[in-house]
Amino acid sequence: xxxxxxxxxxxxxxxxxxxxxxxxxxxxxxxxxxxxxxxxxxxxxxxxxxxxxxxxxxxxxxxxxxxxxxxxxxxxxxxxxxxxxxxxxxxxxxxxxxxxxxxxxxxxxxxxxxxxxxxxxxxxxxxxxxxxxxxxxxxxxxxxxxxxxxxxxxxxxxxxxxxxxxxxxxxxxxxxxxxxxxxxxxxxxxxxxxxxxxxxxxxxxxxxxxxxxxxxxxxxxxxxxxxxxxxxxxxxxxxxxxxxxxxxxxxxxxxxxxxxxxxxxxxxxxxxxxxxxxxxxxxxxxxxxxxxxxxxxxxxxxxxxxxxxxxxxxxxxxxxxxxxxxxxxxxxxxxxxxxxxxxxxxxxxxxxxxxxxxxxxxxxxxxxxxxxxxxxxxxxxxxxxxxxxxxxxxxxxxxxxxxxxxxxxxxxxxxxxxxxxxxxxxxxxxxxxxxxxxxxxxxxxxxxxxx
Length: 451
Known about the structure:
Mean pLDDT: 90
Oligomer: single chain
CATH superfamily of the largest domain: Glycosidases
Number of domains: 2
Shape: globular
Structural class: alpha/beta
Order of helices and strands: EEEHEHEHHEHEEEEHEHEHEHEEEEE
Low-confidence stretches: 1-51
Number of strands: 18
Strand order of the largest sheet: 3-4-5-6-7-11-12-13
Strand content: 15-25%
CATH topology of the largest domain: TIM Barrel
Largest sheet: 8 strands, parallel, barrel
Radius of gyration: 21 Å
Number of helices: 9
Distance between the termini: 39 Å
């Protein structure tokens, strides 16, 4: 899921090259992390759903929340802007993810064995400055690995071929590139393999080439582990698409997950060489942009998919590499409603025991940017940035959840020993009693309250 916003240019060996910039489309260990003691996890899911067993163990202080850098990020403006954003992010360190090609990064290997690291270096430097736990997505592939010419990527190739998968005869070449990335960035421990089966699933009405993806994944897994035994590798980074109707085992009021998705996941899981964590993504709207039964009810898809994956994969942590909650058919919401739906979606990840949820940051260089983590003109933290930071502070992986309820079901609640989060899911004012306190909430208000 991505929308193209423009290009970035740079010079490599005297040649001007252009990179596609992409925005939304679709653990430098920090001692305290302002987190509760790790693994004090209860079975409570708050006022919704049934009890759930304690989630798979994660590293102490694992932040759970974070974001993916897209085509334009803080390092693409000015040094002063970058420092301002890095300083703001450093106040609540979280996960940060960057792709090796596209999404603000030029072709990392324009010629076989000749590497261009400037863009990745720049993004990783921003992560370091901001105290991030860095993550790298091993996607996408240089042109010569997928039928294009050697050399810097041409303008048309960014638009037409960025999403192409490498040819099978170049799977070994892509695996070697992945190993070079892992060697160069030795302080990066976490690697996700590819992105949404791009190029392996051109028609979602038909089965994906899950055998091809799994073959490439296994080569990448082996190559990275050979040079970096400490590295953590995850896949399949598969989008859990859903429809209103259908006949599969993974279903809910929100719809039915496509059988082609389940077949692809099952094949990869059965035939993978190994995995340190599971990577998926998805949207609460259906493929036809429907929200069933409504925008808040549809969010239970995130918990249902997480629970299905946990039952199938046991102790492997579940990572959501991207998640979306607003239809991409031109639907527009006022910012209070959009934030309320986002907060409620993050509650679903926390309750269901997802280890990680990465927000796809729709950053641009100028002008208004709804949903951006920081203001593209000033670098100031935006409401979405504050929301992600608060979840990082109060609900990291391993935080104990307490079974607190709301007297009014229109107000959703998430609680840990020191903090309450309330979200009014309506466009009207609501008064409710939570944890023995009375709260008056404005339409779509998000309220944080100490306990």
